[in-house]
């Protein structure tokens, strides 16, 4: 049976909105991690078969196939192509999946997979805003087929996060305790140097800008809800951020021919969908599906990464799967570290791989909610 291996993984620090990375062109952010992969792995970049990058809101500086542009900006060979994918928040995780599938199929041997997003330069939903110039306000409201199926109701991540909190009876206080833990874990990881090996400094920074050392339950309790009468506040949602991350995925043949040393094996990849109006519940059925396909239980994983789009998403997932939160997002998540949408899937995997190695664990699982009610699941095995 063919195998797909992770050879190397690198990321930029995650910049806060308007922070140190805000003025860096998205192509240069992507090029930075591509160069880091080539340098760290020692590969001949001309041997790369494809570059697959995740990115959303691909307008302006992120338009025109940012995967290809970032590769060229990094000074890499012209003959290597690139393609940009959009599975919303899971775009970079899907890029890794496509890379693994290319390798497993035997049609590619060496692929750079990752993602990039500068949310300071290109705000979230910019692509929808551009559509308004042509008379379309959202991808849903003007579609007769959509309206016939789902009705004229609000489709929003904020509404979905509130619906999840209500359905799973997750209190604001419970979510605030979770958010505070995210910041504290991220700060501990930073202070202990856990991120040092995975981060390649850029823009004058070598550490993530998001974690708040001065936050507290008292400060969170004073914030106004995002929606009138709701439980969610800005403190309970992921931070708008800038950044890039990438992984080098190789076949058995590439490992043998190029003398590469795999760090992990991609054990399982899958993606599932759920109700798009609920939008953020996808990780629950996606995880259940992955466990069924692999024959594993949630307790088999030394580490788990569930993207902290909102605190309610992770807490509902944990209630449904029975996962021990002591093994989930152990170095903090999107609430503290930020969520540069198109890059987060690769950022999570980069951090998960490094932490799995640091702990000497064997298996790790990653999942994240995505627009349209979808969720990817990746299981890796440390080698």
Kindly describe this structure.
- The chain is α/β, with parallel strands linked by helices and 383 residues long.
- Among the domains are: 4-123 and 240-258, Thiolase/Chalcone synthase (Peroxisomal Thiolase, Chain A, domain 1, 3-Layer(aba) Sandwich), CATH 3.40.47; 267-382, 3-Layer(aba) Sandwich (Peroxisomal Thiolase, Chain A, domain 1).
- 37% of the residues lie in helices and 18% in strands.
- It has 13 helices and 10 strands.
- The protein has helices at residues 26-41, 66-73, 91-105, 126-132, 144-150, 157-167, 172-191, 217-221, 252-258, 283-294, 311-321, 334-337, 341-359, and strands at residues 4-11, 15-16, 50-54, 82-85, 110-118, 241-251, 264-273, 303-306, 363-370, 374-382.
- Strands 1, 2, 3, 4, 5, 6, 7, 8, 9 and 10 form a 10-stranded mixed beta sheet that branches.
- Helix 1 packs across helix 2, helix 3 packs across helix 13 (341-359) and helix 10 (283-294) runs parallel beside helix 11.
- The longest helix has 20 residues, at 172-191.
- The radius of gyration is 20 Å and the shape is globular.
- It starts with a strand and ends with a strand.
- The model has no long low-confidence stretch (mean pLDDT 96).
